[in-house]
Structure formats: C-alpha cells, structure tokens
TrEMBL record:
Keywords attached to this entry: ATP-binding, Isomerase, Lyase, Metal-binding, Multifunctional enzyme, NAD, NADP, Nucleotide-binding, Potassium
Name by which UniProt lists this protein: Bifunctional NAD(P)H-hydrate repair enzyme
Pfam families: Carb_kinase, YjeF_N
Reaction equation(s) it catalyzes: (6S)-NADPHX + ADP = AMP + phosphate + NADPH + H(+); (6R)-NADPHX = (6S)-NADPHX; (6R)-NADHX = (6S)-NADHX; (6S)-NADHX + ADP = AMP + phosphate + NADH + H(+)
Function: Catalyzes the epimerization of the S- and R-forms of NAD(P)HX, a damaged form of NAD(P)H that is a result of enzymatic or heat-dependent hydration. This is a prerequisite for the S-specific NAD(P)H-hydrate dehydratase to allow the repair of both epimers of NAD(P)HX.
Keyword rRNA-binding: no
Residues at which AMP binds: 412
All residue ranges annotated as the YjeF C-terminal domain in the record: 209-466
GO biological process, one term: metabolite repair
SUPFAM superfamilies: Ribokinase-like (SSF53613), YjeF N-terminal domain-like (SSF64153)
EC number: 4.2.1.136, 5.1.99.6
Domain YjeF N-terminal: 8-202
Family: Belongs to the NnrE/AIBP family.
Length: 466
C-alpha cells in the first residue's frame, strides 16, 4: 500500500524548513532520478528529446538534459522559454555546458515531457497543442516528468494531454494521478526521491493506493474443518437470475463453504448450476447476504424488508441504489455498497447528498466518495470505475489495477460474489471490499486471452489459480 497526497507543496516545504534542503537540491534529485531511469532502461546510443515549459517542471527537464549531456545524444526543445527562477538557473547551467537546443520537434528514441507539472491551469495554446500532438504520435518511448502535461490538480485532463508510457513523479504519489480520466495518459508510475527517503518526505494521509501484493486470499489453515466453517453466502435471486448465479458461482469458488440462491419457486431451477443451493427463505445459518444483482421488481417492498430483519453482513449492488429501500439499509451496520458511477449518482440523490450528473461525479470522484463516507461513516463504499475507490469513514483506498478487460456485463456480478464470499467467511466489510476488488482485478490481469474476450465465466474459472 502506498500513500497518496492531495498536494505535495507542503511536503516540499517540510524539506526546506525541517531538513534544510534547498529547492536546488530537491530539483537535482528529481533530475537525477529521471537520469537514472533512462540509464537503467536505455542504451546511450538512443536519442533523447526533452521538451520543456516555463516553470519548475521545465526546470526539471533542463536539469535532466544537463545530466545526460555528454553521455547521451540529448536535445532540448523549449515549448515555452524558461521563466521561473529555477528554470532560468537551469538554463544558464545548460547553456554553459553547450547542451544542444533545437527549435522544432524531431523524432527521437526517448521523449521526455517537462512542459508543465503541478502548476498547469486552463488549456494549451494552439502551438503547444500541435506540439503535444506530434509528441503523442511519436514512436519514441514517452516519459512524463512528474505528471503528464495537461493533467490538472484534480486529475481531469486538458483537451491536449501528454500520453506517457511512464510517469516519473517527484517525492510522493499525487491522488490526481488516479482519477479515472488520467488512466489513459499516465502509463506506469514510479516515485523519485527528492534528497530524503520517501518515508521521510511523506507525512500523514488518509488516502492510499493498493498494491497487488496487498491481496490477502482466504486462508484454509484449519485442518479439522467442514463446509460450515467457511461461511454461508446467500444471494437474492431476482428477475434476472443469471446475475446471482454468476455471483454465487464466484462466491463458491472463492471459498464460501455454502452458497444459496434465495428466490421464488417459479425460478427456472434447472438452469441453476448444481453446485449452488436453492431456497425460498433466507437460510438460518447465512453469514452474508448479497442483494441487488439482477433483482428487478421480483420482490415486493415488504418482502425485501423481511430479508432485512436480521443483522447479517450485506453486500448491496445494482438495482437497490434506485429503490427507497436503500435508506433503510443505510441505517444498518456491516454493509458494503458497490455502485457504478450511474448508481452512485442515484444513491447521492436518494440520500439528498447531491444532485449531480455522472460527468460531474467522474470529475470529482474523490470529493463525492468523501462526502458520502462522512454522511454514512459506518458504511463501506466501493465506487466502481477504471480505478476503484473504497472508502470507510475517513480512510480511502484506490485500486488502480483494473483494466478495460473488465468492461463487460457480468463483471460486476462476479465482483459482488467475490466480496460476498469474503464477507461470509468473516472478513470485515472493509477488508472484504479491498481484497475482493484486488482479486477481481488480478483475475483480469491473469487472463491471457485477448483483452476483448474476457467473460464472467473466465473470471470465475481463474479464481482457482489466484
Ligand atoms: N520543490 C519544488 O517545488 C519542486 C518542484 N519540482 C517540479 O516543479 C513542478 C512545479 O513547478 P511550478 O510550480 O513552477 O509549476 P509548473 O512548471 O508545473 O507550471 C507552471 C508553469 O507552467 C505554465 N503554465 C501553466 N498553465 C499553462 C498552460 N495552460 N499552457 C502553457 N503553460 C502553462 C506557467 O506559466 C508556469 O510558468 C513540479 O511539477 C515538479 O516537476 C521538482 O523539481 C521537485 C521539487
Ligand atoms: K510534465
């Protein structure tokens, strides 16, 4: 798990004031970090172009050009002339060493974008937009200095944004790098130290980035065991039973000892896989209940309320977010909600927390997750998206490991099954959400068919090899 920060300016200030490091020292380390990355990954026969802007992001780029000069065939292209004090100082140093400067974009092997970093605002001029177009269509390996140029502090992207293969970010990870919109521009991320170890640079935070290694699979350490030791996941089987069948199969494969679909007699029993049980009422020994997937209008309000007359841990998904019933559910403990953006917008409206569009939510995902978790501090929320956000009270976790492979009907039902299974096996709601989500993204990662071909069945099959 890595720490995430809203801004790093205050962390830089700590370096100046508490550790007596200067801006020059920090910048030299930033540039050195980028130079080390290039040395470690590319031979010095490869040509490097560094495109710089007028502020300190540009200054980082000019310092990098100086460090590589004499060793690599490196050229500097000023998208904007140096203006900040540090940029002017770096320019002076680069000039003294006769670092090559070019006036127009040229093809190269390694392309570094140091046009603008955390100081970006507005949109780019037509000239820089054209330059960014040439950079983005170049065949070079693309490195973003600190953040891809065009990414705003909140994580939204300008009309023209640099599209990096890797983002080498300074000091600590910024939250903005993990808004869904940024996902297409970021590439891989690496953090570069700025003259003190990252541990000392970083301070307290309540936002974290999940690593795949954080995944804790359900352990079966107990030797003298029977199926009743591993929980009983019950799922309400609604109008579209396929959804709860997929959840149920995922839940069973992920370790729940018993899985039961709960529904009416008229369900097409023959279509239900034999490994899942079927009942007309909630089994007494249920340890977790999954509610919402494919629910439709199968049950009346009173019937649904009957399922709530207990304190069983629950995972809530899909149709429930647009039902008034959700308000009752929100007063319960041990609840996980797993809305996608459209469902979360509906939830925000029903709870009268906000009346916003999906577009606004997507631009301010962090803000609205915080808003909801403040209003309902006892509830674990998992907001689906390209980067999943999980929040409980004042702690937030981003799972960035998902991929477009998962953009397929039924993926969410599998996720509900994974989370429900962990919940049934005794994980806390927060842990069930975190580890269910990590497992879900790992399943997609492990799938080695074509990206477009992953089905819920493939995900379920992969659970055995996690
Ligand atoms: N202690 C520090 O301050 C450190 C800063 N570092 C670097 O400094 C960067 C931040 O530097 P600054 O605060 O100078 O900000 P930036 O260099 O990111 O951006 C500000 C500059 O970009 C220009 N700009 C803003 N919007 C623009 C637009 N739409 N089109 C064209 N130009 C635009 C501004 O005119 C200004 O000159 C970080 O991203 C990082 O790369 C690193 O060297 C590490 C240490
Ligand atoms: K940049």
């Amino acid at each position: 798990m890595q720490k995430l920060f809203e801004e790093v300016g205050s962390l830089d200030t700590k370096c100046y004031e508490e550790f007596f490091l200067s801006e020059d020292i920090l910048m030299e380390h930033a540039a050195n970090g980028m130079a080390s990355y290039i040395r470690a990954n590319f031979s010095n026969k490869q040509t490097t172009l560094i495109v710089t802007g007028s502020g300190n992001n540009g200054a980082d780029g000019i310092a990098l050009a100086r460090l590589l000069h004499g060793e690599y065939d490196v050229s500097l292209l000023y998208a904007k002339v140096p203006k900040s004090q540090m940029a002017l100082l770096q320019e002076k140093r680069a000039k003294a060493l006769h670092v090559k400067q070019i006036k127009e974009f040229q093809e190269c092997d390694i392309l570094v974008d140091a046009i603008v970093g955390t100081g970006f605002s507005g949109e780019f001029s037509a000239e820089i937009t054209n330059l960014l177009h040439a950079m983005n269509t170049s065949r070079a390996f693309k490195i973003a200095c600190d953040v891809p140029s065009g990414l705003t502090k909140s994580g939204t992207c300008a009309k023209a944004t640099f599209c990096a293969d890797v983002t080498l970010t300074m000091g600590a990870l910024k939250k903005a790098l993990f808004l869904d919109e940024a996902k297409d521009f970021l590439g891989k991320t690496e953090v570069l130290d700025l003259g003190v170890s990252r541990k000392l640079y970083e301070s307290q935070t309540n936002w974290y980035l999940l690593d795949m290694q954080d995944l804790k699979l359900p352990a079966r350490e107990r030797k003298n065991a029977h199926k009743g030791n591993f929980g009983h996941l019950s799922l309400l089987c609604g109008e579209k039973p396929g959804a709860s069948v997929m959840s149920g199969l995922a839940g069973l494969k992920f370790g729940a000892g018993l899985v039961t679909l709960v529904g009416y007699e008229n369900q097409q029993l023959l279509h239900i896989p034999h490994s899942l049980m079927y009942a007309h009422a909630l089994p007494d020994n249920t340890t977790a209940l999954a509610l919402g997937m494919g629910l439709g209008a199968e049950f009346s309000d009173e019937e649904l309320q009957d399922f709530l007359k207990n304190d069983i841990a629950m995972i809530i998904d899909a149709d429930v977010f647009s039902m008034k019933l959700i308000l009752k559910i929100l007063s319960r403990k041990n609840i996980i909600l797993t809305p996608h953006p459209k469902e979360f917008v509906s939830l925000l409206k029903i709870t009268e927390l906000a009346n916003i569009s999906v577009e606004e939510l997507q631009q301010k995902r962090f803000k609205y997750v915080e808003l909801f978790c403040k209003a309902y501090p006892h509830i674990t929320l998992l907001l689906k998206g390209a980067n999943v956000i999980i929040g409980l009270n004042n702690n937030f976790f981003i799972n960035p490991h998902g991929s477009a492979k998962l953009a397929k009907a039924g993926s969410g039902d599998v996720l509900s099954g994974l989370i429900g299974s962990l919940l049934a096996q005794g994980y806390t709601p927060l842990d069930a959400a975190i580890h269910g989500s990590l497992a879900h993204t790992k399943l997609a990662h492990n799938y080695n068919g074509s990206d477009f071909s992953l089905t819920p069945e493939d995900l379920i099959q992969g659970i055995g090899n996690l």
